[in-house]
Write a structure and sequence with these properties.
Elements lengths: L1 H8 L4 H30 L6 H40 L9 H28 L14 H28 L3 H17 L7 H21 L4 H8 L4
């Protein structure tokens, strides 16, 4: 379903594809920088100290989240400049794409790249050695990982809309809410292998973020009800 966002809403528009690819690149750069800092920290520490290594892992996850949101802000600033250039070049003085549409496409770009890396790591684990659940652990590792990947893709999409709206209207509390939600979802991953403790709250946050993004995009409860009832 997540990749359907690209096929049905982005694939036919060349400008949206460029924005999506650029957004994916920004997420990739943030991952590269956070991974580099975490790698240096691990190499400079005592590998035998399990408590320290766990602390460094938590630090790496939290730092990666903050860096992703910092790059999301940089990407917003870049797209804002791009809109000004498009308006200056257009004959009618209007941009061919709105900031709300850019926010959506940029969010999908962040989400798809995040999902792609999650799937790569998952497939790498699937190659072995070993068998999932052979020592009595849960055999739902791959299934829950797939559901977690999907929720992260959707969350990045909604976070993009909320974050850009906050930047556009200088509502810093909206930006703060996005950062807190991102930190919360990433922190919930430490609940594994108790997958219910990470999946259920993540999906509840996704539902809340989806409703919030829908309302900020101009949606209404009446329109949603008419859509669900298939009424024109």
């Amino acid at each position: 379903p997540a990749f359907g966002l690209f096929i049905f809403t982005i694939a036919r528009d060349p400008l949206r594809i460029i924005i999506l690819i650029a957004g994916a690149f920004f997420w990739l750069v943030s991952l590269l920088l956070s991974s580099l800092i975490w790698f240096i920290a691990v190499k400079a520490s005592d590998p035998q100290d399990e408590r320290l290594q766990k602390g460094l892992l938590i630090f790496g996850v939290m730092f990666s989240v903050l860096l992703q949101e910092a790059f999301r802000f940089l990407y917003y600033k870049l797209l804002r400049k791009a809109i000004e250039g498009l308006v200056a070049l257009s004959e009618d003085g209007c941009s061919p794409i709105s900031i709300q549409q850019m926010a959506y496409v940029a969010g999908v770009g962040f989400g798809l790249m995040s999902g792609a890396f999650s799937m790569i790591n998952l497939l790498a684990d699937a190659l072995g050695p070993g068998t999932v659940g052979i020592h009595g652990d849960s055999q739902l590792y791959f299934l829950t990982s797939a559901f977690m990947t999907m929720v992260l893709i959707f969350l990045h999409t909604f976070w993009g809309i909320l974050f850009f709206h906050g930047c556009e209207h200088r509502r810093w509390w909206e930006i703060t809410a996005v950062v807190i939600m991102h930190l919360t979802v990433s922190g919930l991953s430490f609940c594994n292998p108790m997958y219910v403790g990470s999946l259920v709250p993540s999906y509840l946050l996704m539902a809340a973020a989806a409703a919030w993004a829908y309302l900020l995009s101009g949606g209404s409860a009446q329109n949603l009800r008419r859509f669900l009832l298939c009424k024109c």
